[in-house]
């Protein structure tokens, strides 16, 4: 039985997998069971932020594995304390809740917003506005928060208390910001929704209108955070700081980690017993997260991400069959003139390049550590695929 047959026999068929069995990786490339190598322009959907098996990351994780692999949150660990302090220092937030994924981080943010409003205003002010084409996770609650009808099926009844604003439509925003709303939840760049950045004027309006009403702003930075867009948080480029942010994906370099961070106003809303996680803040994941933070916040690193993003975007925009390039930093969407994104992804795989898709676009989320040489090699493969 092959690996693919084995997975088909014993794992629920919830994923549309590419026909390749990845076996090992180093740097920004990986290899399958046959030894064929691939340049990775997807980094595990933006999760392998430092590429495969980064030396400093491996050392930190292995040292922690040999020291203490897990303890519940009934006890303290130094590595969790260090990671929390560093993360709050880097982001400018007051306190953090650790979990295991972006969906869990968003669940935490939703609970926090509703409790903030309940504590201050009582019942009935619990609605959260999200955006059409948003994506916030696959739990029942975060699916309910996701502004894409394609996800609103099968699992009825969905969680109540969500409504959807058309992205970049300020009039729609104002019309739906009534006295039942406790928070507005946004992605600065809608990843699964097509890699589209919000307009500055729309973001400005969200913060302005929410401030008037004491409505919290939640920024889902699960995909945009931890340097992906060229700043540690994408919100920095929009000139705003949300009351609550969520992080995951690249935060721990490939280990399961999510984080919900709150400003001083919201830092103590979730008190003892109101939320929790068995594995959240796991010592091994925290060690991986610390290694990522030390690398990403090192002098010049994010400047390098910006430079490489500009370099890659310029090359992509000149390729045949490319209609436009969207997104921000190394979070890239490629609209095509005459090919289907899925067909391009499969053809690129055959030539040794891993890419992703988002709706009708090819999506790229390369490791933040990718070199210009590897960018050149990957773009050359894309050029060949698009020219066929």
How does this model look, in words?
The protein is of the alpha/beta class. Helix content is 37%, strand content 19%. The chain is built from 13 helices and 17 strands. The protein has a seven-stranded mixed beta sheet with strand order 4-12-11-10-7-5-6, sandwiched between helices. Strands 1-2-3-15 form a four-stranded mixed beta sheet. Helix 9 links the parallel strand 10 and strand 11 (244-247). Helix 4 (78-91) runs parallel beside helix 10 and helix 11 runs parallel beside helix 13 (372-387). The chain starts with a helix and ends with a helix.
Largest sheet: 7 strands, mixed
Rg: 21 Å
Find the structural class using helix and strand composition: alpha/beta
Instruction: Provide the low-confidence segments as ranges.
Output: none
Strand order in the sheet with the most strands: 4-12-11-10-7-5-6
Number of helices: 13
Helix content: 25-40%
What is the typical, i.e. mean, pLDDT? 98
Order of helices and strands: HEEEHHHEHEHEHEEEHEHEEHHEEHEEEH
> Quaternary status of these chains?
single chain
Q: Termini separation (Å)?
A: 35 Å
Proportion of residues in β-strands: 15-25%
Total beta strands: 17
- Anisotropy-based shape: globular
Tell me briefly what this model is:
This protein has 388 residues and is of the alpha/beta class. Helices cover 37% and strands 19% of the residues.
Topology diagram in text:
Blueprint: H1 3-10, E1 22-26, E2 29-32, E3 37-40, H2 43-46, H3 55-65, H4 78-91, E4 95-99, H5 102-121, E5 127-131, H6 140-145, E6 162-165, H7 170-176, E7 181-186, E8 189-190, E9 196-197, H8 200-213, E10 216-220, H9 235-238, E11 244-247, E12 258-262, H10 283-296, H11 301-317, E13 322-328, E14 331-336, H12 341-350, E15 353-354, E16 356-358, E17 361-364, H13 372-387
Parallel strand pairs: 3-15, 5-6, 5-7, 7-10, 10-11
Antiparallel strand pairs: 1-2, 2-3, 4-12, 8-9, 11-12, 13-14, 14-17, 16-17
Helix pairs in contact: 3-10, 4-10, 11-13
